[in-house]
Amino acid sequence: MKSNLWKFFLLMAVLVLALVGCSDDEEAGKDSADSGKESAGKNQVLEVAVFQGGYGDAFWKQLAENFEKANPGTTVNVTANPDIGELIRPKIIAGNPPDVVYLNQTDPSGVTQGLIKEQGFTDLTDLFDGNAYDEEVPLKDKILPGVLESVYMAPYDDGKIYMAPYNYNVMGLWYNKTLFDDKGIETPKTWDELFALNSVAKENDRALFTYQGTVPGYLEEILIPAVYSLGGQEALDQMLNYDPEFWKTETALEALGIFEKIANEDNALMNGTVALDHTQSQTSFMQGKAMFIPNGNWFEGEMAEAPREDEFEFGFLGVPSFTADEPILALSSMEQMYIPKAAANPELAKEFLRFMYSEESVKLNGELTKAAMAVVGGSDIVADYLSESTYNVFKAVESGMYSMSGNFAPVPSGVNVDPREVLFDQAASVMNKEMTVQEWADKMYEVYQKVEDKK
After folding, report:
1. 143 pLDDT exceeds 50?
2. Which candidate in 71, 132, 194, 433 could, as Cys together with 139 as Cys, close a disulfide (CB 3.0–4.6 Å)?
3. Is pTM beyond 0.90 here?
């Protein structure tokens, strides 16, 4: 009896200890969960640095406010400036960068290009493999096809995504749609058809072509698609990655030959083009002095107050191909965002980007920037905020016009020349008949060789 009573008390003691242990474990687990919630939603500060250009900063400030409301306790500080690259450079060098940066690799500060060279980005692959903010689908499925695989977002060819797309631009040749409709002029699909319209241009008291003379970089909107049309992605990669041998190919000579033909053919180039800046040449085009001009989807908004010929209407042609069985092309470029590798809050930064791709945020962006983000159906989401011509440009790309991207690679350290700048700076000499296409190609071979020597 005594033995049984002892066993009973021993069993009760064990049960009490077990219950106490469980209670302690539950409290510990509760404390841990509460601590996790606190770190996820309280007293967090996200630093966002954005380039303040044509899109302004209103979207980013409102987005930050919306994100704070959706994540109580989180503070988002937005720093916006036209020279944001120069402002954040010291912080990046000191290892204290912003958490989110919106700054393209073409920015003259060279900050983004420098980070590309140094592989200084946080890997975003898991962000795009994960679910979208407002849909049970992978976020990558909401991005326009081909964008995440492009050099803009995946610069290292390692299958990983390091930059996130923001607004995108579509570029090519433009024309006066009213003129073409009233006169029954067919829009050209090939370069031969375009040059055949020179006589029609002359009959309508205008030159065939003009471009932004003192800003010749606009001509990449013709050259890059032309190289792709002639030589495919392989040739384009040669040009964009500074392979000197590219400039000895027929593809290079034929693509450059477009500009020589414009220079040499009577009435093809609008008089005085080479000396005009972008505003002057674009105004001349709108006043009916030229039939075609290269530009992007921002064209109508940028020139909203410019004088024009009666009943002028923006029409987007794209870029003709070299054969009739190929599609019309359009050059696209993507605004880029990224999280520096040394960012203090990379996971919160990813959530901020995920939030930005929600339909509500996409629509807000359209309202405040009058642009479309690189998401599927983006132009329809923001249709109410786009001009008719801008909407038509985006719809053309989403509906069959072949959109291809091309961005010149960063040059290696120690290279003191910008090959892209040199390339298009020669256009004036060609247009003035002071340089032949062969001389142009030979010069670029020498420039590319300098880059090759530093690789």
Report:
1. yes
2. 132
3. no
